[in-house]
Predict the structure of Alpha/beta fold hydrolase.
Amino acid sequence: MSKPPTLTLPPGARAYRLATSRGDFAVHDAGEARAGTALLVPGFTGSKEDFIALLGPLARRGYRVVAVDGRGQYETGGPRDEAAYAQEELARDVLAQAAALGGGVHLVGHSMGGLVARAAVLADAAPFASLTIMSSGPAAIAAAQHARTRRLVEALAVLDMETVWRAMRDLDPPEAADDGTPPEVREFLRRRWLANVPEQLVATGRRLLTEPDRVDALAAVPLPKHVLSGAVDYAWPVPLMDEMARRLGARRTVVEGAEHSPGAERPAETAEAMAAFWGECRGRASAPAGAGGAEESGAAERF
């Protein structure tokens, strides 16, 4: 799971519940939309806090940045019914969030959130100015990660959240106990886990195991795309994301020194790459016809 480096919101940011046609969602909201608005969707076991370190750098670049707890995640809550967390339901939530923000939104999905963001764009690309897929791949997670995720899903079906949390900590390597994580962040990770709706974790965990390859369908959507990851990733290997970017004709960024959570692990470099991509999107939108498209921005960048 992602570990935010801090839980302190930057100056001017606020936490509240965003009202949408699909209900209210807990969000962190920072910045003014001088350059545009971004909607950040977290991954499996994640929350809006995973993006805290990105809020300030992106707001200073002129963006309004809204990070959300999805349905069943942390402070948003949701029903005790797996059907409520089907991917099409979560995609409709993202569309409603984008509409509540006024449309023209730069959509960012991290990990499982990347699959949900993709589903939202495939359902209706109109509310979005661009799509950034962060540390997420073309289909299900790597086979090497299946066993761990399957065990978690099976445990959630029969055990309470506290018992599962303790079991996961027992499986942590010894060095995890002294990895420099601040005590308040450790306590937050436990609190967040316990607040998640277990049916949401079961439904999205199963999706991670079974997601089909929808890259070709996404490539056909005329929307600027960006594939961003760390230099190491065990859920979706980096070469797999390289190939996905090629198939999409997408801009590709690899953030050196980061793994599965570049927004938390290397926020300055990640924010720089995201803002540069969004700036290109503005340039394309204002350029005359024939001035270039997403295919021309597919070269890999390394920070």
